[in-house]
Design brief:
α6 (97-107) links the parallel β4 (88-91) and β5. This protein is an alpha/beta fold. Helices cover 39% and strands 17% of the residues. The protein has a single domain (13-241), classed as Rossmann fold (3-Layer(aba) Sandwich), CATH 3.40.50.450.
């Protein structure tokens, strides 16, 4: 299977050196409403600074694995802007947009969370192993997949749903017509979270889904309105009945 080959042998070394936490989504977010509870994972396994799940707002920066150079530049610019606004950058540690978003947040002195499509002791893609190890030491890794679980293609859209649940807003930087990123956009809308499409995505005539998402409430994000839009993102995931304090 290509996922197993890409991960190589052995897990992430930092996992072996640190004790992992396992919490429920309700312990992170507080009581889930009926919409949030549908499809929510039963457990979240954490490695790193769990206190990041008490802070916010948290914003997902997501997009294509095979990103263009312009897309990577936009992801870095957006992550740096989020750091300036004291927001936590969340992504999936995939190749392309995800890795660029995490790296830019770290380089800017900000905080970032990776929501993985693998168990904490695995790494996909292998090229992001060093970044994953660093984030496990200095930032936060989150997975709903227990150690030893099989890594299959269906893990990644499941991961995208969880990322939408854990964040206050999602920004799609660049994505094709059939990209898995699109699933996260729809999930954000279903959950009542803010969804932003960068203006280059919204104006792409080759794509059908941006118009549909805008019809259902997605907003277009540009350099001109960036600061205004970021300033208005509410920290809806920071609820008074969250119980994560017991774990950090």
């Amino acid at each position: 299977m290509r996922y197993a080959r890409a991960m190589g042998t052995g897990g992430v070394s930092s996992v072996e050196r640190k004790e992992n936490l396992a919490v429920s989504p309700a312990e992170v977010l507080g009581s889930l409403n009926d919409v949030e509870a549908k499809g929510a994972p039963t457990k979240l396994y954490l490695l790193g600074d769990a206190a990041l799940l008490k802070q916010g707002p948290r914003v997902s920066v997501v997009g294509s694995r095979k990103a263009s150079s312009e897309g990577l530049m936009r992801a870095r610019f957006l992550s740096q802007a989020l750091v300036r606004h004291d927001m936590i950058v969340v992504s999936g540690l995939a190749a392309g947009i995800d890795a660029a978003a995490h790296s830019a947040a770290i380089e800017a002195g900000g905080r970032t969370i990776a929501v993985l499509g693998t168990p904490l002791d695995e790494c996909y893609p292998a090229e992001n192993r060093a970044l994953q190890e660093r984030m496990g030491r200095e930032q936060l890794l989150v997975s709903q997949f227990a150690a030893g679980s099989a890594v299959t293609p269906k893990n990644f859209p499941i991961r995208n749903r969880t990322m939408a649940l854990l964040t206050d807003a999602t920004v799609i930087v660049e994505a094709g017509e059939k990209s898995g990123t699109v699933h996260q956009g729809w999930e954000a809308l279903r959950l009542g979270r803010l969804l932003f499409l960068l203006d280059n995505v919204a104006k792409d005539a080759s794509l059908t889904w941006p118009k549909e998402m805008i019809h259902y409430g997605a907003q277009v994000l540009s350099r001109e309105n960036l600061d205004m839009c970021l300033a208005e993102i509410p920290a809806v995931t920071l609820r008074v009945d969250g119980g994560l304090e017991a774990f950090v």
